[in-house]
Amino acid sequence: MMIDWLFGLFSNDMGIDLGTSNTLVCVQGKGIVLREPSVVAIDIETRKVLAVGSEAKKMLGRTPSHIQTVRPLRNGVIADFAVTQEMIKYFIRKVHQRSSLLHPRIVVSVPSGITEVERRAVQESAEQAGAREVFLIDEAMASAIGVGLPIAEPHASMVVDIGGGATEAAVISLGGMVVSKCIGIAGDELDEAVQQFLRRKHNLIIGESTAENIKIRIGSVFPLREEMTLEVKGRDQANGLPRTVIITSEEVRQALKEPVTAIVDMVKEALEETPAELSADLVDRGIVLCGGGALLRGLPDLIRQETELPVQRAEDPLTTVAVGTARYLDLIDEMDRGGRVSLTGMRRSFKGI
Predict the structure, then answer these.
(1) CATH number at residue 96
(2) How far is CA 169 from CA 120, 157, 290, in A?
């Protein structure tokens, strides 16, 4: 116990929101200390990592033939184990700049729908990156903790986390997830829908970053009080030459309709599977939206209209998962001291097991 206390005193224990689009690190007592894209640039021939995070994202779509920029996570799970491990190592070392003898405890968020093999892959990546202990927590649960919902009470709390690669909806009561839904439609699919729409309607090819920028700047799910336009530059699909077009917020809304509808339908499915007593709680407590997708204009109003429940956006939806992972460390400490916290929806994994 004394050894654990000394390690905790000198090491930067941290929570990691290992997202498909972005990785955030939250350190106990310091808050969010790192927020970078989950992108890695590698030399194809030597497999050497050339850049990670923001520097690698700047290279997307701009690299010569011998350099490849990759997103090692897809739909919230590891697609490339080796590259993910290098990315996690980079982020941990960037945050934890003290002696390598002092290894931090790390909590990593994972989608609720992943397999045990995928959970093990996430755990091993963090272990290989130098973690003293690794804890895994479901993203929806981390979101609920990060928002500050009373998850240990015998009443329903509901969160919908719209990340980069996956959207999760969970109804939580007594520290566990009573209902959990996860689909591989989220921010990346919204961006892809914009890309496909411009290719189909305007014969214009654009990259991922451009599509994301369009979504952020003029994307919406309801008609706006004042519709907007945006100048978009890309490559003409017919002749391959650079071209500029003007698109409207109405067009972007049309492009986003299909993936947004799928997300709303998933939320409704989760509600349909919720026990009656907990459903009654949600009439008053409502739904909290988290993740970058929650920032899409009008989305809370659309879900409110479709579910007839109160819907609110988290105060800082981009950081709720990361903050929740760090707060989970406090809950672990409380349990280790003999506390009565019960969080059955979480899993604890120890290095070496």
Answers:
(1) 3.30.420.40
(2) 23, 11, 10
Neighbours of 13 (CB within 10 A): 23
pTM: 0.86
Nearest of 171, 136, 131 to residue 151 by alpha carbon = 171
22-27 vs 31-37, strand pairing mode: antiparallel
pLDDT tens column, 136-156: 999 999 999 999 999 989 999
CB contact at 8 A, 322 and 24: yes
Token reading at 279: 């459903």
Residues 212-233 have pLDDT tens digits of 999 999 999 999 999 999 999 9
Range of the structural domain that residue 65 is part of: 2-143+319-349
Using DSSP's 3-state secondary structure scheme, residue 51 falls into strand
Q: Half-sphere exposure of 82 toward its Cβ, with a 13 Å CA cutoff?
A: 5
200 within a domain of the structure (yes/no): no
Residue 331: count other Cβ atoms within 10 Å of its Cβ.
19
pLDDT on residue 114: 77
Query: Got the DSSP string for 228-271?
Result: -EEEEEEEETTT--EEEEEEEHHHHHHHHHHHHHHHHHHHHHHH
